[in-house]
Inverse folding.
């Protein structure tokens, strides 16, 4: 055994759900500076849709823990390092962190695409799983932005670009067409190849196209980055749209019901058969998804997501950046804090503090379930 313990490897947070990279630590039996065997229970992580027990793939001695109970962590985050001998408690995490920073964790498809496009590891993000979208974004960032003449010719007072060409992007395209208030002229998406189409709408390029589009006279964009598990990303996109000098379009599907006395702030999206009732106020860049009900006098913070079928009774307050899952029911007058995640099918009978993770399918009475 050497005098100085050697790092055998890292235990990192797994990707629990490809659509939800963040998870909450709900159990943490692992102790810092303890012995660990392969297969030992490290922690339990929970998303709005799934729970997973993380097991050690290493045997040795645990160093400092970088997580604690109730933390929200992301796929690829370091949980601890494992050493070949008991480390000193003052020893800093970093022996393998430096190695981890030098390397890039990639899916096989992303690795193949990076080779094809000539994207090196220095241009890719570290500390999480790198996807094909990340690789395409890195490749696009090196190319000059040139807007096609026929695209520029289509820019008018009601022209709109959609940021994101995934499932939500398709929904936004159909919503805008049904509402008839905007003409969708293109899609901005770092993960899609320019020149391809989504529902007949051409992909213009990545986020670097936003400023040139604004300079060419475009006035509006729609944020189509889904908020399930990645509200921080959606918020960042909203900021990118604003920083480029574009306005976030308010979009209401024709079958939705929005009271005359309700207030929808910039960038709000109200989907099919949703209801926003009298004197309700919905904050900027928030989604009121299909069939959701926001009853009278509710106050919804910016960059939140009221998922399909959720029901907020009268005078419910929701903080900024909060996800209310599918089929959630919230009683009259409740306060749901900022950056909270309320799992699908939950019933809320008490206030939910900021940053709280409410497990799916439970009755929330103010105590952890």
């Amino acid at each position: 055994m050497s005098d100085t313990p050697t790092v055998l490897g890292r235990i990192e947070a797994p990707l629990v759900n490809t659509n939800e990279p963040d998870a909450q630590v709900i159990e943490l039996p692992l102790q810092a500076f303890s012995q660990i065997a392969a297969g030992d229970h490290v922690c339990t992580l929970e998303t709005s849709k799934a729970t997973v027990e993380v097991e050690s793939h290493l045997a040795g001695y645990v160093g400092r823990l970088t997580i604690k109970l109730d933390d929200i962590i992301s796929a690829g985050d370091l949980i601890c390092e494992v050493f070949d001998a008991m480390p000193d408690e003052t020893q800093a995490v970093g022996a393998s962190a430096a190695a981890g920073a030098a390397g890039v964790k990639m899916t096989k498809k992303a690795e193949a695409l990076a080779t094809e496009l000539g994207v090196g590891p220095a241009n890719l993000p570290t500390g999480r799983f790198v996807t094909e979208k990340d690789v395409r974004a890195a490749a696009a960032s090196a190319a000059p932005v040139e807007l096609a003449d026929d695209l520029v010719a289509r820019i008018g007072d009601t022209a709109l670009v959609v940021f994101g060409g995934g499932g939500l992007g398709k929904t936004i395209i159909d919503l805008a067409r049904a509402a008839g208030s905007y003409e969708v002229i293109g899609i901005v998406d770092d993960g899609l190849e320019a020149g391809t189409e989504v529902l007949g709408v051409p992909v213009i390029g990545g986020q670097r196209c936003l400023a040139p589009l604004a300079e060419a006279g475009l006035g509006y964009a729609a944020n189509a980055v889904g908020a399930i598990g990645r509200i921080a990303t959606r918020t960042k996109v909203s900021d990118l749209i604003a920083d480029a000098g574009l306005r976030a379009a308010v979009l209401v599907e024709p079958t939705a019901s929005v009271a005359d006395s309700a207030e929808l702030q910039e960038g709000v999206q109200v989907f099919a058969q949703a209801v926003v009732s009298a004197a309700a106020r919905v904050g900027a860049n928030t989604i009121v998804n299909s069939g959701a009900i926001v009853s009278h006098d509710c106050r919804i913070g910016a960059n939140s997501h009221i998922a399909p079928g959720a029901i907020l009774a009268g005078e419910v307050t929701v903080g900024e950046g909060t996800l209310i899952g599918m089929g959630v029911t919230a009683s009259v007058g409740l306060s749901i804090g900022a950056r909270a995640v309320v799992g699908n099918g939950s019933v809320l009978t008490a206030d939910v503090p900021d940053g709280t993770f409410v497990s799916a399918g439970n009755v929330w009475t103010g105590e952890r379930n």
In short: The radius of gyration is 23 Å.
